[in-house]
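TICKET: design request
STATUS: open
ATTACHED STRUCTURE:
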């Protein structure tokens, strides 16, 4: 474990390789599971604000689910999350011509309609954050549906922390990320 400011980081994110392979998995992380994507408290008003712009991107079932449940819901664990369609895929899922699951929020962002990419939990994946009273744990969330991402990451030799650099900088800042890179350098060269 590495500590930077009020974060405790699993060395797994430095040691394991990962690059999403949407061709292989078809966006399964947005479809499978028993809960929606985690939403931070400060993201709730953002979702409310952007929903009218994102709504035209949604599937009919996605829009119906959101209209019925809300732009976010409180999960069984008491945490905020994205709503699901009939207990299945995320209500914000859209599909491309290859039937790969994509995010309607991110598509609106890519089209320049909004300035918020997507929930930070989605942007950080396969990293999951767990906030405690005195620190935030930064961990690698292993899920068998991401095996192809591990294979591709290993082939390309891209560790998790590099794959999600943009999201880590978004969440913790450039200085924090520079400290993470320095920690990795020192772990790889203990004689320095």
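STATUS: resolved
RESOLUTION: sequence designed for all positions
ATTACHED SEQUENCE:
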């Amino acid at each position: 474990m590495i500590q930077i400011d009020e974060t405790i980081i699993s060395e797994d994110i430095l040691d394991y390789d990962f690059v999403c392979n949407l061709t292989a998995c078809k966006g399964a992380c947005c479809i499978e599971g028993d809960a929606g994507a985690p939403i931070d408290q400060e993201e709730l008003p953002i979702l409310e604000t952007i929903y009218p712009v994102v709504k035209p991107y949604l599937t009919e079932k996605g829009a119906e689910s959101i209209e019925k449940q809300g732009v976010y819901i409180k999960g069984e664990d008491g945490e905020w999350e994205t709503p699901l369609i009939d207990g299945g895929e995320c209500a914000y899922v859209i599909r491309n011509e290859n039937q790969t699951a994509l995010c309607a929020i991110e598509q609106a962002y890519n089209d320049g309609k909004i300035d918020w990419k997507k929930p930070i939990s989605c942007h950080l994946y396969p990293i999951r954050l767990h906030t405690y009273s005195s620190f935030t744990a930064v961990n690698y969330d292993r899920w068998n549906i991401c095996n192809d991402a591990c294979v591709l990451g290993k082939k390309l030799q891209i560790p998790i922390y590099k794959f999600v650099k943009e999201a880590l900088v978004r969440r913790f800042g450039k200085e924090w990320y520079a400290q993470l890179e320095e920690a990795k350098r020192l772990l790889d060269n203990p004689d320095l």
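CLOSING REMARK: Residues 174-188 form the longest helix (15 residues). The two ends are 19 Å apart (CA to CA).
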